[in-house]
UniProtKB/TrEMBL annotation:
Species whose genome carries this gene: Flammeovirga aprica JL-4
Pfam family, one: VanY
Annotated D-alanyl-D-alanine carboxypeptidase-like core domain residues: 89-194
Molecular function per GO: peptidase activity
InterPro entries for this protein: DD-CPase-like (IPR052179), VanY-like_core_dom (IPR003709), Zn_M74/Hedgehog-like (IPR009045)
Any one Gene Ontology BP term: proteolysis
UniProt protein name: M15 family metallopeptidase
Top-level taxonomic group: Bacteria
Amino acid sequence: MHKYFFIFLTLLTHSLTAQECDTEITQKNWKYRVNLSTFISQKEGIDINPNKIYYDFMRMPIGVPFNYIDFIQIKEYKYKEIENNQLLYPAYEAYAKMKQDAFRKNIHINIRSSYRNLRTQQIVFNKHGASRAEKPGYSEHHLLTTIDIRYAGENTKLFLWLLNHAFDYGFVPTYYFRIEKNIRQESWHWRYVGEEAAQWFRCAWRNEINNEINRLSHTFGKI
Ligand SMILES: [Zn+2]
C-alpha cells in the first residue's frame, strides 16, 4: 500500500514540475556529497550525528558534512586562496568567472568571508548568537564552498544581479528563501552547489525569486 502510494506521489511530483526541476538530482549527487563530507570531516575533525543533520524543504541535507557539488572527484578537493579567503577549487573557478562577468556589467563582487574553521565559527557564534549564526560544526562556511558577498544587502543592485545570474554559475542563496522563520534571511550568503543543483533550487524557488526580482527591478531596472 505504502509503496504504491509513494510511486503515485513520485509520478505526481514529476508531472507537476518542469523537466529542468528533476528530483533525481538528490540521488545523483549523493556519492559526491559523501566524498566531500569525508574531506571536510578529516579537515575539520567534525563527526556529526546524522540524526542531527538539518534538512531543507527539498529534503536536501544542509550544512556539514553534506554538499551538492556535482562531478567533482576526491583528488580535486583542493582549495585555493582568494581575497584573503579560501574556496574549494570548483567553487573558486565558478566564483572567479562570475566575478569577471559581473565586472563587465559594472557589478562588483567581493568576498567578505568564506571559509571558517570550528574556532572561527565559535567566535562568530559567541558574538552574534544562535539566531544570526549557525552552531560551530553546522555552518555552511565550513564547507569551503560558501561566500558572504560584500555590500550585497537585500535592497541592492548587486543582490538583483545575483538573483538574475548567480544560479547560472552554481551559487544559491541558501539562507534567503528558507521557510524556517527563526533563521535570518541573508541576501549576501551564497553557497556553491554546482550548476545542476543550482538550477534545481532556482526551479523550486522560482516564485520567490521572481517576486524579489520584480521588487528590485522597480528601483534598478532590468540587469
Ligand atoms: Zn554566510
